[in-house]
Design goal:
By secondary structure, the chain is of the alpha/beta class. It has 19 helices and 23 strands. Strand 13 (246-254), helix 9 and strand 14 form a beta-alpha-beta unit. It comes from Luteimonas colneyensis.
Length: 558
């Protein structure tokens, strides 16, 4: 399994640099790439062996190598040999700034007990300055012998004085020790709850776990990282995603600070991935875009023309809003992180300003609320080309799937959520509700367009893991045999489309990226094997040889 680690950004090889410098000496003109096969994701020419682009990174032609060589005799030649080339992979739901933070904090992903969590924290804390807060992410109580939420006491024993704040794997719960809770500066005891959140208590006293919007109590008390740390973290995130073949990211819930950070990188030509940012409602960006219009950086690497809203929490922390009780927690139907009236007001304002709307919804109740809201706001305009999205669309009452098609919505889904959750999702939902859970095939058959992603750093950012999960419904160990709920698998072509052309279309970007066709940008990935030909269980073993954005390499393997 490929884990999130601090990526070593491999430089472009000397041989390739020589080839590119020769082109530059000749006026930095046309370039012609040949490969054993090029999957274009373009219906007009699905497979080719060559692509030509100009000095600006715009594709001029796609076709057979001999023909294009004859038509472009002065183009610099780049031969990828027996490799397979695919359009640049796009993660349709991710958090770039969050990935950078994860790469700079204690990594708790996959820890199998609270003891292992503490061991990892102690190792990480050895290099921390005295008095610094210990931050980490990735814990998942579902992997532990005792699957109950942890308590502050576990952390207090190891860190009685240093504040510790740990984000759950899904980003929807936070575990803190007593030192961190003291820094909040208010009495956490009693029976009060913050809007859209839950302070977990026992006998009226906080246990140390904060769910959904309650987590803001802890993070507001923690010191903000300085600008140098932020820049280093974001640079690591960019290097890491480039090494995985990602040329595009839909950044979901971008706040003002994160967007300013992306702008700084774009201004100095350091934004090595194409970012479609969806503004966080709380960032004030809806009104800013209503006033100023959608944003596009001159480099073409950073856009913002949509807004990301939320209605509920996550299934793993029992915050997803369900129509009926959680099967393993009677009386609990999850959380609404925003009231229905507030959601509708935000959706209406976004529509008035011509913004694309994307709303997080995981539980069947959460999804139904969003569907009802979209239907009311769209009204007679539901048949238009708005491409509003539901992010995750994870647990759906089966009868509601057809409503996505009727409202012309995009289902933005993350295949690895299924393989991460399959060990306990049945306990949360019961077998009957699994009929509409992680139901990719049902959406395809209903005519609903899919945009695929990972939700990194909630999941690993590697799109090969997403392809594997989509095609096999299995984890990297081939479990379970035959796949989990295997009737919902996608074909390899459908999965690749979801990470390329489908993702681009879902962000109104189909005339720029997502396919390899004349007039589009030369964003592509060179792979050692053909993802449409290898056995499904080997998709995660495909090697990324190089990643190209605007016709220039941003990563090449050593």
């Amino acid at each position: 399994m490929r884990r999130i680690v601090s990526a070593s950004f491999a430089p472009v090889s000397a041989g390739l640099l020589l080839a590119l410098s020769a082109s530059a000496a000749a006026g930095d003109g046309e370039r012609l790439l040949t490969a054993a096969r090029i999957h274009t994701s373009d219906a007009g020419m699905p497979v080719a062996t060559a692509v030509v682009w100009d000095a600006d990174g715009r594709i001029l032609a796609v076709g057979e190598a001999a023909e294009l060589a004859a038509r472009h005799p002065d183009a610099e030649r780049i031969d990828a040999g027996d490799a397979t080339v695919v359009p640049g992979l796009i993660d349709a739901h991710a958090h770039l700034v969050g990935l950078g933070h994860a790469l700079m904090q204690a990594d708790l992903v996959g820890a199998r007990s609270t003891d292992e969590v503490v061991e990892r924290l102690q190792a990480f804390a050895r290099d921390l300055p005295a008095g610094a807060w210990l931050m980490g992410r990735g814990w998942d109580q579902n992997l532990w012998p005792d699957t109950a939420f942890p308590t502050a006491a576990v952390l207090d024993a190891a860190f009685p004085d240093r504040p510790v704040v740990l984000e759950r794997i899904d980003g929807h719960a936070t575990w803190a020790n007593s030192a961190a809770m003291r820094a909040i500066g208010r009495d956490l005891a009693g029976d009060w709850q913050p809007d859209g959140g839950l302070v977990v208590r026992e006998d009226g006293q906080p246990t140390g776990v904060f769910v959904d919007m309650a987590s803001s109590l802890v993070y507001a008390a923690a010191p903000a990282p300085d600008a140098v740390w932020q820049e280093q973290a974001f640079a690591r995130a960019l290097e890491h995603v480039a090494s995985l073949g990602l040329t595009g990211v839909h950044d979901m819930g971008t706040d003002d600070g994160g967007f300013a950070l992306m702008q700084r990188f774009a201004d100095r030509g350091a934004l090595s991935v194409r970012v479609q940012a969806y503004a966080s409602r709380g960032a004030g960006a809806i009104e800013a875009m209503c006033r100023d219009g959608a944003y596009r950086h001159p480099s073409g690497r950073l856009d913002m023309r949509g807004v990301k809203l939320m209605i509920d929490g996550a299934l793993g922390s029992r915050g997803a809003a369900l129509i009926e009780d959680y099967s393993d927690d009677p009386g609990n139907r999850g959380l609404l992180v925003q009231d229905e009236a507030g959601l509708e007001a935000a959706v209406r304002r976004a529509r008035e300003c011509g913004l694309q709307v994307a709303t997080h919804a995981i539980g069947d109740r959460g999804n139904r609320i969003v569907l009802d809201t979209y239907a009311r706001v769209l009204g007679d305009g539901a048949s238009g080309d708005h491409r509003w999205r539901i992010e995750h669309a994870q647990v759906i009452a089966p009868g509601d799937i057809a409503r996505f098609a009727g409202l012309k919505l995009v289902a933005s889904m993350q295949p690895t959520h299924a393989t991460s959750d399959m060990g306990w999702a049945g306990d949360r939902l019961g077998e009957a509700r699994l009929a509409g859970a992680y139901a990719w095939r049902s959406f395809v058959e209903a005519g609903v367009p899919l945009a695929l992603g990972s939700d990194f750093p909630v999941e690993f950012p590697d799109p090969r893991l997403g392809l594997l999960a989509a095609v096999t419904r299995q984890d990297v160990h081939g479990q379970p045999p035959g796949g989990w709920l295997p009737a919902q698998v996608l074909t390899a072509a459908e999965a690749l489309h979801g990470f390329t052309a489908g993702a681009a279309w879902s962000a109104f970007d189909e005339e720029r990226v997502g396919r390899l066709a004349p007039g589009l940008r030369a964003d592509f990935v060179v792979l050692d094997r053909d993802p449409l030909a290898v056995p499904g269980g080997e998709l995660d073993d495909i090697v990324v040889r190089s990643t190209w954005v605007d016709g220039k390499p941003v990563y090449e393997a050593n």
